[in-house]
Amino acid sequence: MGIGIPAAIANMMQSFTAVMTxxxxxxxxxxxxxxxxxxxxxxxxxLLILTGLAFGGxxxxxxxFGRGDKKRLSELFRFTLVFILSVAVVxxxxxxxxxxxxxxxxxxxxxxxxxxxxxxxxxVITMPxxxxxxxxxxxxQSAGKVAGSFVLSISRQGVIFLIVLVIGNIFxxxxxxxxxxxxxxxxxxxxxxxxxxVQLSGTFRWKSR
Length: 209
Prior knowledge:
Blueprint: H1 4-25, H2 30-56, H3 58-67, H4 70-106, H5 110-124, H6 127-142, H7 146-155, H8 159-199
Helix pairs in contact: 1-2, 1-7, 1-8, 2-4, 2-5, 2-6, 3-4, 3-6, 4-5, 4-6, 5-8, 6-7, 6-8, 7-8
């Protein structure tokens, strides 16, 4: 239950994000909505790659938490952190550079490609922070810290996203809507770091003895 419920909530939040984003894009025209539909599909591929990498380490985290092996936990954490952040940075750079090409695969309308290029870059610019949140989420789940994984599951594409979306739209209009995911990622990653330090930092051995 501690693993299944946060995962189910995260999946529901992704659909919620798409619906709310399209709703706030309505005043800016159908082309913007069409472009965002493509953007969400492309960014989802990157997100699924990072999700698979993050959750691939969950059995090991669960095993070492069960044994109470702080040394192995710390080694695993350092490895998975560097690995998933490196992959996220590479994916981010590739998508940013190839954004016009990726949009062109799905659509040949110049204005939609232009809008989508900007949207896609805004959507993935904080992908390394998303990787960080995913990693912390599976660590909380593996440690049996349901509250931590639940908070992160409803934040990035849920409560935090909605608050930022509303405020961004009021004060910055279209640009505010486009910046919503990046700002939400930044805030959620800060929450993840704070929760980790409060709930689990003592579980890891940070200095070799």
